[in-house]
Structure prediction request, 366 residues.
Amino acid sequence: MSILRYLGIHFNPIIYNRNPDIHSQFDMKFRASHVPTGFNEDERQRNLEAVLKFGMFDNSVKPDTDLSFVDWVIFAGTPEWCNGRNKDLYELIIKYQLPVLILGVGGGVDIYKEKYKEVIQKAKLITVREHTTQRALAEKGISSTFMTCPSILSAPKAYEKQIYRCSTIALIYQATVRESVLWNGSSEDLYKFELEFYKRIIEQYGSYMKIFMVCHYIDEVPLAYRDFPDMDIRYSYDSADYYDIYHNADLVIGPRVHGIGVSASMLIPGIAILHDARGETCEGFHAKTINIQSGSDSAMKSVREVVGKVPELNRDLYAHKHNTMVEYVSTVGEAMMDRDVHYDCESDVNDKKYNLKEVKASDIGL
Prediction:
C-alpha cells in the first residue's frame, strides 16, 4: 500500500480473506471447534453453523461478491497466492476481467486449476521474494523478477530506528504443530533447536542485555511461559501492535518470517532460523540465516558476529529499504499504466446469490 501512496494513487482497499478458518483448502465441512453452550434445542441451525462452516460472516470478498467496481487485484507478499484457498478470487478475476499485479510472492507455485495459469501469465507484473519460486515459475514458462518482499516497506518512516549499539534482543517463540496452530506450528526438530538455542542466548547475554520473547499466536503464550517461566513475554491480538512490540529491540532472532520482516521494515537487523523454503524470504531482509542442522554452536557464532555489527547492519537496512522502494515505485508505476486484459477461459462463479437469513433448517435436511 505504501508503494501506491508513494505513486500518488488514491485507493480504497478491499480484502479477500484466504485464511484457513474462512476457506478450507480441502473443502472440509466439519470444523475443529466446540458447539457453543447455552443454546436452546430449537436453535438447531445455529448449532449446525458452529460445527459446519456454513456461510461467511467476515468483512471481506465473498464468493459471489460483485467486483465490477474493482480496478486492480493485487497479490502481495504471500506464499499462498495460487492454491485452492484463492479459487473464489481467481474465478472473480476471470468473470470481471480484472487486471492483476503479483508482488513479492513465494512458497513455490501450486496453481489450483490449469485455467488460472492464464491469469498469472497475463499479470501486469510478477515479482517473487524467493529464487525457488522464480525457478518454479520459469519451469511453467512464466517469467518473473526477483525482488525483496514488499513487506520491508510496511513500517512508516516514524518507526524507522537508528541503532548505536545492541542492548535489547527479541526472541520469536514458535511452538510445534502438535501443541499449537495447525498451519503455523513448527516441526519437533525446530522446536528442540529453538529451546536449546534460546537458553544459550539468555545465558550468554541475559546478564547485560535486555531480552524479551514474542509470540504471534495466543496458543503459544501459555507454552512460552511454560518453557521460559522467567522471561518477559509479549503478545497482541492486533497485528498492528507488532510494530510497537518489535520496535523495542535492536536485534530480532527467530523462525517467523513476519517477525523478521516487520523488524527489517523498522531497520532492525534479524537472524532468521530456517526451517522451510519460506525462510529464503529473510535473505531479502538482509537477515543472517542459520540452519537448524548446523547445531547451536554454529548458531551462537552467528549471533556473536551479528551483535558486534548491529549499527552497521542498521545503516545497511536504511539504504536497502530506500532502494527497494525506488525499485518498486518504478516497476509498479510502469505496470499500472496498462489495465487492459482479456481472459479466454470462463469463470465457474454461479450468479445465484444466497441470503443466509432465508435458509431454513429444513432446507439442509434437519
